[in-house]
Automatic annotation (TrEMBL), chain B:
The lineage of its organism: Bacteria, Pseudomonadati, Pseudomonadota, Alphaproteobacteria, Rhodobacterales. The keyword Membrane applies. It comes from Loktanella gaetbuli. It holds the Pfam family BPD_transp_1. Its main location: membrane. This is ABC transporter permease.
């Protein structure tokens, strides 16, 4: 895809096409139904590291599956797993080739509230275990504050940076932090900024 | 396991019993309607012919079906990947499929005079490639873009994306169409064997039964065709279990 205007730089290098150092996660888990969970997770390695041995691939995949709590499910098919578990497996697939940047497009949007909070914590643990830059696109303000180091509010089309907030919270934050007055204030500011971005001050949603 | 065998066997026995009863209660003579009890003698009397001609029908059907799979899959790929090809080819394909194939028998019989094996295979092919092409085409063109993006984001080639994602994802649809195509291919083979018989295949045996007023033989041929059809169908089911078994949901 050609940009209308401007350039994208990643680590000071201009981006011209698809890059192997990027991982993608979508709202749907998009798992391949004919592959086991293990084979789904190692899929990117088949492209990015064609010479890597099967045993090494599986060892790497197991590392991630253990971390997200899917130990023992590696030989199941995606259809045998719940929505939350599928999204966990999908996360493992996005990370298996150790990308420098992970781009997530509303990855937890289709999950129920409690499963979503579980996955926030999984996400936090994954990033602590092997740090990688994440660009998370979300409509959930609590999610943005809990997972983010920096929250950027974008305006409507054409999208422009409307507001930037640095999240000044401890790195090992727990869900409890979401119920502190500090976070409540932050959420309030973000909400106001979104109202402005939408171009209406009083209207709901 | 016993249940799985017993139920279909019982249903076949009940069907044969009803057939026998119908012939008996109406007092139909052999030259009007054969009864199941007439069939074993007919099979026994012509057992060599049944084996030889059954084989001729079977191999020509399978070769025709095989060609239909190759051609239909290629055509489906073209239709599935190119919008222009889809728009250009669909009316032609639908039109060709709508032509009753019986009308083509004399055409190909004249075009390829005496090439009976070739003509029969050609007809089996022509009648059965359409469902395969359409289902592969639809399977490929309705592939969700997100599935492509998983690999495209990593810089995978179009061919890799096709081999690892599009192809396996289309397999359930492909096998669904193959079941229809297998039955159709049999119709194609028999059409040629009956309409332009050359003394080859079960269709020719059927025709000779008709000529000689041998009704038990004709019905025996019908049963033999049904058996061949069942065999081919379950061969496809067997392949489907191997290659696309993942699409089957466990029954609750």
């Amino acid at each position: 895809m050609k940009p209308d205007e401007g350039e994208v730089y990643l680590h000071g290098e201009r981006v011209k096409g698809p890059r192997k150092t990027v991982g993608m996660a979508f709202q749907n888990p998009v798992l391949l139904e004919w592959r086991s969970i293990m084979d789904n997770v190692i899929l990117p390695l088949e492209i990015v590291a064609p010479r890597m041995s099967r045993a090494d691939r599986e060892a790497r995949a197991m590392e991630l599956l253990d971390m997200v709590g899917l130990t023992g499910f590696e030989n199941k098919r995606p259809s045998e797993l719940s929505g939350g578990m599928r999204q966990r497996a999908s996360l493992c697939r996005s990370l298996v080739h150790k990308p420098e940047v992970l781009i997530m497009d509303e990855p937890f949007g289709a999950l129920d509230a409690f499963t979503r909070e579980d996955l926030w914590q999984t996400m936090r643990d994954l990033r602590r275990a092997e740090p990688f830059t994440t660009v998370l696109i979300t409509h959930d303000l609590r999610e943005s504050v809990f997972l983010g180091d920096q929250v950027i509010v974008l305006s409507g089309r054409p999208a422009r940076t409307q507001y930037v907030m640095d999240v000044d919270l401890p790195e090992d934050r727990t869900l409890d932090v979401l119920y502190t007055p500090k976070v409540a204030d932050m959420l309030h500011i973000l909400r106001d900024q979104i109202k402005i971005a939408q171009g209406r001050d009083g209207g709901a949603h | 396991m016993l249940y799985k065998i017993a139920v279909p066997v019982a249903s076949i026995l009940i069907f044969l019993g009803f057939w026998e009863f119908l012939v008996w209660v109406n007092g139909w003579p052999n030259y009007k309607m054969a009864s199941p009890s007439d069939l074993p003698p007919a099979f026994w009397q012509y057992k060599e012919l049944f084996l030889i001609m059954g084989w001729q029908t079977l191999w020509r059907t399978v070769v025709g079906l095989f060609l239909a799979v190759v051609f239909g899959t290629l055509l489906g790929m073209i239709i599935g990947f190119s919008r222009i090809a889809r728009d250009a080819l669909y009316p032609l394909l639908v039109g060709f499929n709508a032509v009753p194939k019986a009308t083509l028998v004399p055409v190909i019989a004249l075009l390829f005079i005496g090439q009976h094996d070739f003509n029969t295979v050609l007809m089996a092919f022509m009648i059965s490639f359409f469902p395969i092409a359409v289902s592969v085409g639809i399977g490929l063109s309705t592939l969700e873009p997100e599935y492509r993006d998983i690999l495209r984001a990593l810089g995978a080639s179009k061919f890799t994306i096709f081999r690892k994602i599009a192809l396996p994802k289309t397999l359930p649809e492909f096998f669904g169409a193959l079941k229809v195509a297998a039955t159709l291919a049999f119709i194609g083979t028999n059409l040629v064997e009956i309409v332009s018989p050359h003394g080859r295949g079960l269709g020719a045996l059927f025709k000779s039964g008709e000529t000689n007023g041998n009704y038990p033989l004709m019905f025996a041929v019908l049963i033999a065709l049904a058996v061949l059809g069942i065999v081919l169908y379950y061969a496809v089911v067997f392949l489907e279990k191997i290659f696309a078994g993942w699409a089957e949901r466990a029954q609750s």
